[in-house]
């Protein structure tokens, strides 16, 4: 069949409008998938850009006419069809979230409830202000559980209750969000506090995951572990926290490999730069006192109370820089739970993906300089032992 390539000026304008319409629709559809974290930059996303920026002019000026437009539209449809599928239906899916008193867990409860999911909200203080706020704002689909992850009895009771509620359907998702953070140098952090951080951030997640796995296997569901940028990089003054999050990353990666044969998918959320419960002024001050009270006299003399106070004040003064908008993290959490093809890792926050990608490639001296530039430890004060 011979293609008429002689187009009038009016035809050229007409087809240009049609090409532009197809381009806008395809571009918006691809952008929507990217913004909802259904896919990241890779082969398929590059292919989408090739179709947009090379496919259109080739079809419009080489093939021309209706056949060119048809080829371009079919190409867009094909590329879109191989992009990751949309989210799964909510149905009667049930999710357990730990650490719902504040921060990411608190916000995720609201989000999942708003889209119709059944939520078991584990709170450190079941009748605390965070839980009360959620009770006032959420529907009856949300069940509140007393859940201190360091308390074996509370973990056991919570899991037994969930088993009774989900019956044979199983538990679709577990979001290990609970975490604790102390800002102090490693020598200033007692073994007692290090153990507490590890018990909550690592072993708490391990404990509740092992207890919930039979229910999650039954539904071929999801395990979502909330780590941090500090699970991939190190930052002075955050030693215990970095240790726990690096270990959680290793645990998550291994668990993902081992659960694949069961049809269970495991994902890691890696936020950075957000204001959560750990960053509240009264929490920072309270944990500063814990740090000081658990130090031996020799270490107190070496560093001095003024040094610790100055670190605390420096952190509090810097909290306005942390984003109060938790939407990027909540979007990643939702996608990890409901996307048909969830990603293994979800870096979220300003510069998170760039820093996580480039940090391992840097020479050690340069990586140390980079992290020193964003350190929480002020440079204008020295420990007592270094003062003349």
TrEMBL record:
- What UniProt keywords are attached to this protein's entry? Membrane, Oxidoreductase, Transmembrane, Transmembrane helix
Listed GO biological process terms: steroid metabolic process
Q: Which Gene3D superfamilies did the record assign?
A: NAD(P)-binding Rossmann-like Domain
PROSITE patterns documented for this protein:
ADH_SHORT
Q: Which residue positions does the secretion signal occupy? A: none
Regions crossing the membrane? 12-32, 39-55, 67-83
Q: Cite the Pfam families for this sequence.
A: adh_short
Q: Which GO terms describe its molecular function?
A: oxidoreductase activity
State the family named in the UniProt similarity comment for this chain: Belongs to the short-chain dehydrogenases/reductases (SDR) family.
Q: What is this protein called?
A: Uncharacterized protein
The scientific name of the source species is Patella caerulea
């Amino acid at each position: 069949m011979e293609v008429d390539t002689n187009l009038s000026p009016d035809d050229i304008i007409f087809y240009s409008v049609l090409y532009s319409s197809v381009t806008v629709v395809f571009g918006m559809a691809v952008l929507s998938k990217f913004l909802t974290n259904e896919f990241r930059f890779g082969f398929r996303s590059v292919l989408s850009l090739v179709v947009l920026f090379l496919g259109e002019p080739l079809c419009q000026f080489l093939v021309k006419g209706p056949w060119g437009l048809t080829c371009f539209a079919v190409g867009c449809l094909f590329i879109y069809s191989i992009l990751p599928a949309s989210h799964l239906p909510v149905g009667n899916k049930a999710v357990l979230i730990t650490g719902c008193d504040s921060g990411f867990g608190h916000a995720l409860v609201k989000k999942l409830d708003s889209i119709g999911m059944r939520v078991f909200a584990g709170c450190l203080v079941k009748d605390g202000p965070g839980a009360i706020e959620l009770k006032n704002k959420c529907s009856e689909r949300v069940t509140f559980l007393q859940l201190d992850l360091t308390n074996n009895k509370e973990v056991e009771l919570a899991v037994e209750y969930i088993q009774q509620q989900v019956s044979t359907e199983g538990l679709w998702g577990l979001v290990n969000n609970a975490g604790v953070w102390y800002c102090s140098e490693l020598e200033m952090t007692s073994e007692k506090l290090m153990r507490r951080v590890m018990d909550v951030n690592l072993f708490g997640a391990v404990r509740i995951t092992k207890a919930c796995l039979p229910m999650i296997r039954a539904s071929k569901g999801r395990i979502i572990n909330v780590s941090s940028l500090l699970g991939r990089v190190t930052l002075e003054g955050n030693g215990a926290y970095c240790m726990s999050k690096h270990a959680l990353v290793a645990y998550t990666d291994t668990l993902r490999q081992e659960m694949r044969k069961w049809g269970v998918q495991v994902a890691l959320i890696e936020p950075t730069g957000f204001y959560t419960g750990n960053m509240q002024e009264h929490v920072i001050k309270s944990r500063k006192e814990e740090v000081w009270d658990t130090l031996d006299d020799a270490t107190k003399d070496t560093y001095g109370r003024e040094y610790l106070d100055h670190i605390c004040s420096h952190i509090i003064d810097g909290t306005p820089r942390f984003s109060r908008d938790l939407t990027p993290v909540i979007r990643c959490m939702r996608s990890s739970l409901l996307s048909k093809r969830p990603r293994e890792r979800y870096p979220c926050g300003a510069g998170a993906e760039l820093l996580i990608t480039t940090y391992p490639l840097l020479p050690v001296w340069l990586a140390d300089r980079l992290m020193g530039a964003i350190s929480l430890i002020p440079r204008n004060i020295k420990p007592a032992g270094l003062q003349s």
